[in-house]
Each structure stands twice: as C-alpha cells, then as structure tokens.
C-alpha cells in the first residue's frame, strides 16, 4: 500500500493522521497559507477603512473595491496557469515573496509621506499606496488556488473532503482574527502597524516554506511538458466537457449574487439591534461556529455525494437567513448567523471536493482560478446594487410607505424592518434557486458523473478495471518520496 492510499481507522472510516508524512506536510502548508491569508485580508480591510477615515470619501472607498473586483476577474485563470505549470512549493514561495516586496514598498512609502497627504482623495501618493497594497493582496490569491490542488496531490478521494474541512476551519479562524484586528490596528496606528505586521509575517512565511521538505507529488509541475501559457480557450473547452460544470459555476455565481446582498446588509441590520462594540464582539463570537463547522467536516467528511451536500447545505443557509430577520430580535439574529456560518464549511468543502474529483489534476489550477474569478465577481456587484435599493426603496416602504401599512402590524416598521424585508426576499430567492438546482437535470448528470468516478476508484483499489472512462478517472500523482 502506498503512502497516498487511504488511511483508515478501526471503524473503516478514512482519517487524517498526523503520523502520516503527507498529513504533516499538509498541516505545515495549511498553517503557512493561513497566516498569510490572515495578513492579506487584514491589509485589505484595513486599507479600505483607513482610506475612508482619512479622506471621508465614500467614492474613494468604492474605487478600492472596484480595483479589487477587476483584479480578481482578470487574474484568476493566469494565477491558475502559474499553479499548473510550476511546482507547488515554488509558486507558493514566489507568491509570498512578491507580496512581501509590495508590502515593504508600501511601508517605505507610508513612513516617508507627510500625514496630511493621506487626507487628499486625489493625491497620487495615496493611490500609489493603495495600488501597492492591493498588488500584495492579489499576489496572495495564488496560494488559495494552489491549496486546492495540493489537497488533490496529497490525498486520495476518500480523504479530500476532510482535508477541505480543515481548510474551511482555517478560513473561519482567518475571518475571526481579521474582523478583530483590522479595525484595532487602523484605530491605533493607521496603516503603520498593519504594514509592519504584514512584512514580518510574510518574511517568516518565506523562510518557513523554504525550509519545508515536500513530497515528490508537489515537487513536480502538474502540467509538466505542456506549453507554459494561460490557455483560456482550452480551459473553457475543458469546463464545457465536464458534465454539469457550467451549471455548478452558474449556481455558485447566482448564489454569490444573493450572498453579496446578505453580507452588504448584515452590518447595518446588526447595528440596528446593538452598539458597534457589541456587534463587533458578537460577530467575532459567531465566527467561532464557522471554525466548529470546519472541524466537523474534517472529522465526518461531506458524504458520498458532495454535490447533494452542497445544495442541501445551501437550503439550510438560506432558511437561516429567512428566519434571522423575521422579528427584530438579537436572539434570532445571532442564532441565524451562527447556523449560517456553521454549515458554510460544508458547502465550501463539498464544492472543492467535487472540483478536485472531476477536473484533471494537470488543469485544476486554471479551472479553479477561472471558477473563482466568475464566482467571486458576483458578491461585490450585488453589494453595490443592494445598498441603494434598500436605502431608497425598502426603508421608506417599511417606514411610512405601503409596506408599513400592509404588514407593519406584525412585522414591525422603520428603516431596520426595511433591511429585514430585503434579507427575507434574498432568502426566498436563494431557497428557490437551490430547490431548482436540486430538481435539475444538470444536478443529476453531474452527480452521476462524480459517483461513476468514485466507483472507478473503488474498482482500481480492488485491482479491477474501471467501469467507465470519464474525466474523473485521471491518475493521481503518487506520493513516493520527499525532496527539498
């Protein structure tokens, strides 16, 4: 039995055991990537807060979000190509080094610029700093794409969902830490403390990764021998060849459109119920449930059909969204978001597990990068659209408009109830979208495609011939040694 074959406990369930060399390597990489992710997200949130606080310009803060949106869309496939065509350790090391260089340059610019300059929204130095910071954040996205392919390379299909659960756990920790420290750092020292921490952590990550020995499966490029080009046309062709893949991307896109509205309104609705300090601590506490959810996935997995798990979990998330604003209640708000965040890692792990199974390993970086670009463009767009719609239509509607007269007696009236109504409408749309996906032919086709591939792997493990020749039946890189 090779080291990359399934390790099982006495109950026959696949486990991740720290005594296994591939699990130890994964743990090192996960900690390294997670620390850098915390820094990148902290820098991203901090620069947005800081620019608004310094300039007082909503437009300037919006432009930063716009820059981030365009950069995300335009770099996904390119970053994925880098992941496919270079060794995983090399590309992750290069990503950290590039981020470090940009943050160091931003720190130098910050400490050599008079403080009064930062209050001018049109000042060239201000936008030079923003662009340097954003370039450092964007360079870190390579590592997120690489981690998806690392899971594929290190683990067989029976353990990938559990590994993805650990990735979800670290995402929850990142979210919790970022939400707490970004505002504190900006309040205490502007961008100075943020950039110093970024430089120190990135330097430590570069040194740690340099000293880490990785298995042979990570020491070779996934697409070794292929021309080193982005090949967007080939990526689109591959996506079209995988049954149900466009439907999965489209579902996630629409789901993120609705989720963007939820995230845009979460803070205003929470602040209508409690002080900003209380809401900050409440949100930090609620984020713990995302960590717990990830740990449950790491222990239990996401089931035999992750695609079904993805959709069922989305039903749960949107049901929680519907309930949390139904009355103006702190208990409902906290409970609803706790349920939402607890099941979120199940959805993320399920989607990653499907992609790792149905996309050939040598193309995963490009396909994952493309999917992330398409999917992540949705949430910021909705956030821009839903906020003015809520403020200028639904809040008056529930304050002294027809809505207040029609349902205000039991639903409540006022601006906060306008936000609550929008949240409930988003939830209804989300429930409808997910129910339609569960009933669709594309869902059945992709589920069958995934399960046929699982059957092929089971038969290979038993020494037999595969029952179907599908894209999911790609050979996995063997874990046969270690290299520096």
Automatic annotation (TrEMBL):
The keyword Cell membrane applies. It is found in: Cell membrane. This is MFS transporter. Keywords: Cell membrane, Membrane, Transmembrane, Transmembrane helix. Its main location: membrane. The keyword Cytoplasm does not apply. The lineage of its organism: Bacteria, Bacillati, Actinomycetota, Actinomycetes, Micrococcales. It is a multi-pass membrane protein. Gene3D superfamilies: MFS general substrate transporter like domains. Coiled coil: none annotated. The chain crosses the membrane at residues 25-52, 58-79, 91-112, 124-142, 163-185, 191-209, 245-266, 278-298, 305-324, 330-347, 367-386, 419-439. It comes from the Bacteria.
């Amino acid at each position: 039995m090779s080291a990359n074959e399934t390790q099982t406990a006495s109950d026959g369930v696949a486990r991740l055991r720290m005594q296994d060399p591939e699990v130890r390597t994964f743990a090192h990489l996960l900690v390294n990537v997670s620390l850098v992710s915390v820094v990148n997200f902290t820098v991203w949130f901090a620069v947005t807060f800081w620019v608004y606080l310094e300039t007082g310009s909503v437009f300037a803060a919006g432009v930063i979000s716009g820059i981030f949106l365009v950069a995300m869309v335009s770099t996904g496939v390119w970053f994925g190509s880098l992941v496919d065509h270079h060794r995983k350790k090399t590309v992750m090391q290069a990503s950290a080094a590039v981020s470090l260089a940009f943050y160091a340059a931003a720190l130098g610019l910050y400490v050599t610029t008079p403080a009064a300059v930062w209050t001018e929204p049109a000042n060239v130095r201000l936008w030079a700093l923003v662009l340097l910071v954003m370039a450092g954040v964007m360079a870190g996205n390579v590592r997120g794409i690489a981690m998806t392919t690392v899971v594929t390379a290190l683990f067989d299909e029976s353990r990938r969902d559990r590994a993805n659960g650990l990735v979800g756990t670290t995402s929850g920790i990142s979210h919790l830490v970022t939400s707490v420290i970004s505002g504190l750092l900006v309040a205490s020292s502007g961008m100075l403390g943020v950039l110093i921490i970024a430089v120190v952590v990135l330097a430590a990550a570069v040194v740690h990764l340099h000293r880490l020995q990785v298995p042979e499966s990570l020491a070779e490029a996934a697409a070794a021998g292929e021309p080193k080009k982005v090949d967007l046309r080939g990526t689109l062709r591959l996506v079209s060849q995988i049954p149900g893949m466009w439907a999965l991307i489209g579902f996630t896109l629409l789901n993120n459109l609705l989720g963007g509205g939820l995230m845009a309104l979460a803070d205003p609705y929470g602040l209508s119920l409690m002080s900003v300090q209380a809401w900050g601590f409440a949100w930090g506490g609620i984020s713990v449930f995302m960590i717990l959810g990830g740990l449950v996935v790491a222990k239990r997995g996401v089931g035999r059909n992750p695609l079904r798990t993805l959709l069922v979990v989305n039903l749960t998330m949107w049901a929680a969204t519907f309930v949390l604003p139904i009355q103006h209640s702190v208990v409902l708000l906290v409970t609803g978001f706790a349920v939402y965040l607890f099941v979120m890692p199940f959805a993320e792990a399920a989607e990653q597990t499907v992609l790792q199974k149905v996309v050939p390993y040598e193309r995963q970086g490009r396909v994952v990068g493309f999917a992330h670009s398409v999917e992540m463009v949705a949430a910021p767009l909705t956030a821009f659209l839903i906020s003015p719609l809520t403020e200028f239509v639904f809040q008056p509607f529930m304050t002294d408009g027809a809505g207040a007269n029609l349902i205000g007696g039991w639903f409540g009236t006022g601006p906060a109830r306008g936000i609550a109504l929008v949240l409930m409408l988003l939830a209804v749309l989300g429930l409808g979208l997910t129910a339609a996906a569960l009933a669709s032919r594309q869902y059945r086709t992709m589920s069958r495609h995934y399960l046929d591939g699982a059957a092929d792997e089971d038969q290979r493990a038993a020494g037999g011939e595969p029952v179907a020749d599908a894209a999911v039946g790609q050979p996995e890189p063997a874990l046969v040694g270690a290299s520096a």
